[in-house]
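Chapter summary example.
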Amino acid sequence: MHSSCILISVYFQNSISELSLAIDSVINADWTRSNYTILVYVDGPISAKFDSYLKSIPNCQITYGNENRGLSFGLHHLTSNNKMYDFYFRMDSDDISLPDRFIKQIKFLECNPHINVLGGSIVEFRNADYKSGFQRTYPLEHGQILDSFHKGSQIAHVTACFRNSFFRNVNYNPFNKINEDLELWYDSIKAGIIFSNLPDILVYVRTSPSFFKRRGLKKAINEFLFMVKITHITNSGFKSYMFPLCRLIFRLLPTQLTSLLYKCKIRNSLLIKK
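The structure predicted for these 274 residues follows.
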């Protein structure tokens, strides 16, 4: 029997009802091949009601931060202080994991011991009918993933499952408050980490109007710089540098237009090389 943990960071603006759906999707999942613990990092002060809910979650270990330090700090703290698990699953506080997500990833990693990080497909949704959202898929094999990284992140961070050995070589930068996943993938590529994706949908990912409003100039430039560095170390070729530039322009468009283009199937086919 394996031991697994789910890494979740929360702060005062998170919705308790949305978090409850996320937690329920973990509790009700198939855990026949592993024990599990939900590791929650509380990023700054929260209400008594929020705290009471967290303390009611079974198999949950809570770590409290005195001030808001950002997602990357919380994840770094959790992984640095909990080194005993075989598998580490990422999940946001408002996402919904499918019932067979965890067992599928565990089985795949059992059969493929050379894989360090395993992701999968997602469905992005806005309303309560999360099953009718927009599906986003990614390349499956390590070589395909590296060949496509200049187009954008090829591992959906919220679907990632990490082996214990991953965090011996790479970890989240606790001082980075934006694009923490891109920095993690950049460091992973440099360290020779082996990636893979499942074709299956693993997580329903919640988006909202604020999802696009959070993508400001600072975040766009930071993303551009990381994408240029990733393009360089993956030896993607001179023409590949057009993609980080196009992404930068895309990020600077008005929010309404960005929202429409984000769901465009043409965009998805351009950014994902299967």
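To summarize the output: The domain at 2-208 is CATH 3.90.550.10 (Spore Coat Polysaccharide Biosynthesis Protein SpsA; Chain A).
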